[in-house]
Design brief:
This protein has about 350 residues and is an alpha/beta fold. It has helices at about 5-10, 30-40, 50-65, 90-110, 130-135, 150-165, 175-180, 185-190, 205-220, 235-240, 245-260, 280-285, 295-305, 315-320, 335, 340-355; strands spanning about 40-45, 70-75, 115-120, 140-145, 170-175, 225-230, 265-270, 275-280. It starts with a helix and ends in a 7-residue tail after the last helix.
């Protein structure tokens, strides 16, 4: 596909991608052969935590083969599960759209006797979308994220309390809750999708599970009720970016090109403490995926808003979760403290590039 001003005009107003997308496995050798065939010496890779791993693998392959290839990653994931950086582009848009689903659940639940609106949001490993969308909407009574321990009976008891108090309830759950409460279903559903060479695990449907368990519990108490289950997953993914994400995306892309043209390689362009920086891809990978800190201020702000327990599980389980991977709750101080080392690493990378034709752009 030729990329020129005419072919990309207006694409920022569209959802999705004009280039297409892949998930999971890839063949580094095949990618290198394709780059050689087309004479490409600068590769920009856009994606999340797994994509950064792929970018690093291609970068290392280029070094191994002594190819004159510059590799640059740009963080993009609506889950916001890339560590070190302040946020990835797409996250603000996902929060904004998720609120619409929550608002619909609220309207439907409130219109019924003991109405319960259930909303399942994306986030296999991180509950960031659930956390921020719930905070922004202020309509949520229970938010469930995979970072916080869970006990089904305690959750159901609290839900009954909410219904007795308000007459309706809104429950928002991250899809990763399937790993926590659907252990048996996960064993059956967590199979690799092999079509097209992809290997992406499937999460069980937490929304359907909660609907069934809530229905059974309220029926056992002889409580009239109505359940509404909303899954806006792909509606959220497919919409065009909002204004904030459009600007952020444009700046990141400009930064990525500037870095590549300056001679850097093996880096990710991101924002740290509101500053645009270049971070070695290896550092992003070492930091691991970002998760919500169950002891962090943002989680307790949500708990204050929803009036739910800080955890439905065993308090000892919550105490054992130190939230060491969370960046949103200022637990990234250790990572930020390493920025001097990271800057030195990027500088060394550039110096090596300038003296070694194997790493610099042609």
């Amino acid at each position: 596909m030729p990329l020129n001003p005419d072919s990309v005009a207006g694409i920022h107003q569209q959802g999705g991608t004009i280039l297409g997308t892949g998930r999971g496995a890839f063949d580094a050798d095949a990618i290198m052969d394709t780059l050689d065939a087309f004479g490409i010496n600068m590769l920009f890779i856009v994606g999340g935590d797994g994509t950064h791993g792929a970018a690093d693998a291609i970068y290392e392959q280029a070094r191994k083969d002594k190819k004159k290839l510059t590799v640059v990653a740009i963080p993009k994931t609506i889950d916001n599960d890339i560590n070190i950086i302040d946020r990835s582009f797409g996250f603000e848009t996902s929060i904004e759209e998720a609120q619409r689903a929550i608002s619909s659940a609220k309207v439907e639940a409130k219109a019924s006797i003991n109405g319960v609106g259930i909303v399942r949001l994306m986030g296999r490993h991180s509950g960031a979308i659930t956390l921020m969308a719930s905070l922004a909407s202020n309509d949520v009574d229970v938010a469930l994220i995979p970072e916080v321990p869970f006990n089904e009976q305690r959750f159901l008891d609290h839900l009954v309390h909410v219904l007795d108090t308000k007459g309706h309830a809104v429950v928002v759950a991250a899809e990763g809750m399937a790993d926590v409460v659907l252990k048996e279903l996960q064993k059956k559903a967590a199979l690799d999708v092999t079509q097209g060479g992809a290997t992406q695990p499937i999460s069980g449907d937490i929304g359907q599970h909660l609907k069934q368990r809530i229905k059974s519990h309220l029926a056992s108490l002889k409580m009239d009720h109505r359940l509404i289950n909303i899954d806006p997953t792909y509606m959220i993914r497919s919409i065009p970016a909002n204004a904030g994400d459009k600007v952020y995306c444009a700046v990141l892309s400009q930064q990525a090109v500037h870095g590549a043209m300056a001679g850097f390689t093996g880096f990710s362009a991101g924002m740290v403490n509101t500053n645009y920086v270049y971070i070695p891809i290896t550092e992003v990978i070492k930091a691991g995926p970002r998760k919500v800190d169950p002891h962090g201020q943002m989680w307790y702000r949500l708990v204050t808003s929803t009036q739910q327990p800080a955890s439905f599980g065993d308090p000892r389980d919550l105490a054992s979760n130190d939230g060491s991977n969370d960046n949103n709750s200022n637990n990234n101080k250790n990572n930020i403290g390493k920025l001097g080392d990271q800057a030195a690493s990027v500088k060394a990378s550039r110096e090596e590039q300038l003296t070694s034709p194997a790493r610099g752009p042609t």
